[in-house]
């Protein structure tokens, strides 16, 4: 983000909306309909509605926070303000994992469609990337990162120009599929072949909630509009609702375009030729060869365009962590062109590592969805804590009914984590817990600081929160969710809701004092105003 002290606050509601929609239409539209239909059948239409509503709750929370802290990587800064250094470091790590894992998802989408004309990239039996596919994925990701090194301005210009393309193609696909093959009876076919829980698990694992993460762009631009109290909410609501209408339309057109014989064995056994590139495969099967060619082209443009955006954003989060002392200071270094080159290298290396435990689009999407929602889950906690500790702080946008909406947002966030299932939760929650243990060990043994000096008093609730979510996932439903089956799906949802209320209550009482929060907020604002990195250790801002 530009220097706020010199910021031209001329981003209008249409400009913010375009950026949101450009980020929303990535790889999700190419695969989401297939994976949602397999899990929930015709009921998958409701999965998109549930996902959109869940994101709206989170988006409104961040609308207030983002206008308070219009910094690049602002979530890192605001966590430091509300809950101190240790919580800020933990959430910097979570936010980094959430951001750096998106480009690999988009690259894997390109490979899945490319496998139809370059066979051998995806194993036809498992749907996982082969060794050749993994190698090509690493090269594609390297190309995306290299363009951010050499031509950042061109990348931004190309992505802006591609927004209309990315909107028109999905809408036109709905029309083409319905015009060429329309079997409305599919909307009632085998509706009992998938469990009701599939409507919810699809939100987390079929790319549904992942597809709506473009709302973040409205939050990022909150500091660049003259009237954020008006423009940001309009852009947020409009982008999510427009995205929902497009995705619901795609889901219906996908289901009705299938031949009835394709679903004769039930939705869980859905199978047709070319499933690794589902929309293009259906276009071919119904005789729209010309449209299939266009879809193969879009399978390059849409995912890689979204990958460009996130490769550009990830280093800014790494820089914010460096500015706040949550990462080494050298990650804030810029090239002569103003590119955070250290952050780009880290983004590439960690991004490639994601291909190994999650070697397919759906596995990557599940991991990204959990991590991203976990990174957002701190938002309701921060908002309510800052309402108590900094009641007089300027809020260009003030959320009404903040207590109720924030509580619902926190519960819904944890539901999505639960819906992801134990296999993914054990990986991602384990990675965060491992970071906490490693950092505390390093801080107490190497730096010889006490737990109090490290900020334990304000962050002690985080390990029990993560461990509790891990345990609920472990004891949850077996089968696709991978738990031990101690309790059923909906019982688990009630347990998650009650656990969320307990965590929220404790987290709000663990926040920093008003004086410490104000000192840290002043530091963050000074950071934004100066536009330069700082060498100050934010732990020195902690109140004694």
Structure description:
- The protein starts with 12 loop residues before the first helix and ends in a 14-residue tail after the last helix.
- Helix content is 69%, strand content 0%.
- The N terminus and C terminus are likely disordered.
- It has 544 residues and is mostly helical.
- The chain has one domain: Amino acid/polyamine transporter I (Up-down Bundle).
What topology emerges from the helices and strands here?
Blueprint: H1 13-24, H2 28-40, H3 44-68, H4 74-100, H5 102-114, H6 131-150, H7 152-180, H8 198-205, H9 208-211, H10 216-220, H11 228-257, H12 278-285, H13 289-323, H14 341-353, H15 361-389, H16 402-420, H17 422-446, H18 451-454, H19 456-459, H20 462-475, H21 489-509, H22 514-530
Helix pairs in contact: 1-7, 1-11, 2-8, 2-11, 3-8, 3-11, 3-15, 3-16, 4-13, 4-15, 4-22, 5-6, 5-13, 5-15, 6-13, 6-14, 7-11, 7-13, 8-16, 12-13, 13-14, 15-16, 15-17, 15-21, 16-21, 17-20, 20-21
For the secondary structure, the number of strands is: 0
What would the principal axes of the Cα set say about the shape? globular
> Which whole number gives the mean pLDDT?
84
CATH level-1 class: Mainly Alpha
**Estimated radius of gyration:** 23 Å
Q: What structural category do the secondary elements indicate?
A: mainly alpha
Helical segment count: 22
Low-confidence stretches: 1-10, 531-544
What would you give as the CATH superfamily?
Amino acid/polyamine transporter I
CATH 2nd-level architecture:
Up-down Bundle
How far apart are the first and last residues' alpha carbons, in Å?
33 Å
CATH topology: Amino acid/polyamine transporter I
Order of helices and strands: HHHHHHHHHHHHHHHHHHHHHH
Query: Approximately how much beta-strand content do the residues carry?
Result: under 5%
- Main sheet specs: none
Task: Quickly count the domains.
Answer: 1
Summarize the amount of helix as a percent range: 55-70%
């Amino acid at each position: 983000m530009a220097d706020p002290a010199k910021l031209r606050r001329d981003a209008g509601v249409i400009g913010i909306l375009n950026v949101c929609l450009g980020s929303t239409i990535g790889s999700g539209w190419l695969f989401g309909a297939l994976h949602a239909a397999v899990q929930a059948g015709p009921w998958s239409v409701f999965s998109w509605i549930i996902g959109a509503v869940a994101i709206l709750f989170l988006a409104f929370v961040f609308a207030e926070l983002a206008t308070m802290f219009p910094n690049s990587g602002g979530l890192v800064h605001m966590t430091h303000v509300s809950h101190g250094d240790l919580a800020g470091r933990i959430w910097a790590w979570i936010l980094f994992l959430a951001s750096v894992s998106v480009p690999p998802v988009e690259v894997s989408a390109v490979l899945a469609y490319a496998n139809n004309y370059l066979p051998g990239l995806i194993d036809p039996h498992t749907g996982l990337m082969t060794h050749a596919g993994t190698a090509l994925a690493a090269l594609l990701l390297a190309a995306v990162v290299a363009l951010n090194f050499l031509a950042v301005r061109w990348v931004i210009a190309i992505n802006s120009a591609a927004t209309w393309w990315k909107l028109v193609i999905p809408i036109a696909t709905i029309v083409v599929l319905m015009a060429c093959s329309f079997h409305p009876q599919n909307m009632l076919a085998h509706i009992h072949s998938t469990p009701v829980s599939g409507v919810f698990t699809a939100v987390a694992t079929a790319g549904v909630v992942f597809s709506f993460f473009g709302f973040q762009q409205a939050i990022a631009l909150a500091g660049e509009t003259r009237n954020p109290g008006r423009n940001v909410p309009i852009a947020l609501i409009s982008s999510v609702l427009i995205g929902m209408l497009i995705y619901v339309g795609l889901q219906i057109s996908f289901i009705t375009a299938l031949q009835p014989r394709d679903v004769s064995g039930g939705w869980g056994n859905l199978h047709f030729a070319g499933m690794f590139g589902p929309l293009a495969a259906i276009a071919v099967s119904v005789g729209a060869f010309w449209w299939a060619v266009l879809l193969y082209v879009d399978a390059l443009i849409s995912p890689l365009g979204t990958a460009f955006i996130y490769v550009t954003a990830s280093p800014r989060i790494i820089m914010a962590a460096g500015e706040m002392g949550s990462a080494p200071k050298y990650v804030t270094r810029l090239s002569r062109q103003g590119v955070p080159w250290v952050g780009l290298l880290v983004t590439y290396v960690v991004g490639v590592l994601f291909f190994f435990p999650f070697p397919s689009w759906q596995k990557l999407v599940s991991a990204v969805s959990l991590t991203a929602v976990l990174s957002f889950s701190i938002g309701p906690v921060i908002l309510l804590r800052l309402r108590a500790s900094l009641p007089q702080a300027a809020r260009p946008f003030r959320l009404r009914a903040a207590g109720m909406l924030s509580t619902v947002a926190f519960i819904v966030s944890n539901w999505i984590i639960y819906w992801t299932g134990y296999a993914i939760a054990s990986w991602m929650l384990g990675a965060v817990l491992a970071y906490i243990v490693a950092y505390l060990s390093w801080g107490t043994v190497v730096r010889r600081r006490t737990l109090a000096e490290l900020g334990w008093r304000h962050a002690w609730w985080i390990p029990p929160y993560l461990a509790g979510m891990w345990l609920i996932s472990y004891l949850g439903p077996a089968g696709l969710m991978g738990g031990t089956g101690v309790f059923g799906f909906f019982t688990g949802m009630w347990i998650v809701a009650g656990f969320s209320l307990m965590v929220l209550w404790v987290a709000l009482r663990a926040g920093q004092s008003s004086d410490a929060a104000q000192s840290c907020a002043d530091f963050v604002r000074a950071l934004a105003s100066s536009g330069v990195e700082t060498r100050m250790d934010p732990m020195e801002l902690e109140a004694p």
